[in-house]
Specification:
Length: 240
Amino acid sequence: MATRISGPSDGDATWAIEVPGRDRLTLSAAGLAEELASAAAIVRAGGGESCRLWIGHVEPGDDELAGRFGFTPYRDLWQLRRALPAADSELAVRRFTAADSEAVLALNRRAFGWHPEQGAMSAADLAARQAEPWYDPGGFLLHERHERLAGFCWTKVHPGGGPPPDDVAMGEIYVIAVDPDFWGQGIGAPLTLAGLAHLAGRGLAVAMLYVESDNGAANAVYDRLGFGHHHTNRAYTADL
């Protein structure tokens, strides 16, 4: 089974089914239907009453197919890409140090209080991500104003060499956040450019990021910076 199934956890009574993008690219419509039928049966057998479904690299017809199993779409996550290098940034940044953890978490909560996943990042989550093989403190860039952390741009490198869509080495703007106290001061775009400059310095030719489809302000910035839509990952929900 290509799909990933996870049961309720951490007080969340909702089950989850995920069809990663690499698997969706290799599944026919009939294959996806079979996967969804099997996954829904497992959730029902486990006593699940509600379920989220993510389909990576969503294709025409996936909405209709998901609807056969009671799923309705509610969220689109776009992947945007652009070529490197990008324009230079004149924003002053420095690399993350362990002493910055508390300030980064506080800013992250303020900037992403609306976000269903990112806004809940804890100290344990931060430490776990920094323990991953891909973590590079040199690519975790902080910008300060008035002796306060005003924003950060956290980058990530995908080495490539795997099956599509993981066959191309790319740099990612993994997280970019600006403290609400500094919104409207022109920090987001040059902070993104600082991250892109770091990725270009790593020898990468392509950069990508994920953004909510309905985040108009962020998408306007990324459009000005030369990013274009590459594909959509779509979330669905169902009462089973």
